[in-house]
TrEMBL record:
Annotated signal peptide: 1-34
Keyword check for Phosphoprotein: no
UniProt keywords, alphabetically: Signal
Protein name as it appears in the record: LysM domain-containing protein
Highest classification ranks of the organism: Eukaryota, Viridiplantae, Streptophyta, Embryophyta, Tracheophyta
Superkingdom assignment: Eukaryota
Domain LysM: 58-100
Cross-referenced InterPro entries: LysM, LysM_dom_sf
Amino acid sequence: MAGERRRRRAAAEAVAWCLALAVVALLLVGSVEKEEEEEVVVVRGARLAAARPCEEIYVVEEGETLHSISDKCGDPYILEQNPHVHDPDDVFPGLVIKITPRSGGRN
């Protein structure tokens, strides 16, 4: 009986050490940084309007209204496509909206 206990205890200790080593290995792998990371460029406001005025994702610039954006991009259904905009008069710089330009818009 005592010999069986020792074997079970030794097996439990071996399993515990293996799990501890696996955790340490995962921590080491997770802490290694990738050498080649993608560069993310954020373009907002006037720079976005100058580059591509009517992409699918549009960031509202200061002084713009839903009407002016609709005219600029040719999307008369901006309010319907953006349920997070509850009031058409509550448009502010930095607001992100979805644009679906129509064939008659200026692109």
